[in-house]
Amino acid sequence: MRLGRAVCPWVQALGLRVECVGERSVVLRLPVTPALARQGGMLCGQAMMAAADTAMVLALMRHFGQFRPCTTVQLNTSFLKPLSGQDALVEARVLRAGKSLAFGEIDLRGARDGQSVCRASTTYALL
Predict the structure, then answer these.
(1) pLDDT, greater one: 27 or 6
(2) Rounded to whole angstroms, how far apart are CA atoms 40 and 98?
(3) In 3D, which of 89, 61, 100, 55 has the Cα closest to residue 75?
(4) What are this entry's molecular-function GO terms (predicted)?
(5) Domains located in the chain, CATH noted
(6) Does this model's pTM top 0.85?
(7) How many CB atoms lie within 10 A of CB 111?
């Protein structure tokens, strides 16, 4: 599974890499780079949200076996603690996908320490 044409160029610039693909889930690695860091080297929330949204689109592709046009209806994000000094692992899991809507959850955690730093729930309209 590759990001390629499934995401726009500025999302590709995040440097996301596929780490693991499950039946209904995908894990991406989001590298913490100076371009994505805030003061003190903390990963910025905007990058986390973009990575979460992207991971869920890939999880939906895995679920359906192909890209299916969709649009984010809701992305509810809770930032639990700052992340610095390590990459983030972004795990997206499809909870339910029907004919017109899909629901999922995403966990972002430190790649080194495994501690959860951000949780998100999503709803997508399937077009």
Answers:
(1) 27
(2) 43
(3) 55
(4) fatty acyl-CoA hydrolase activity
(5) 4-126 (3.10.129.10)
(6) yes
(7) 17
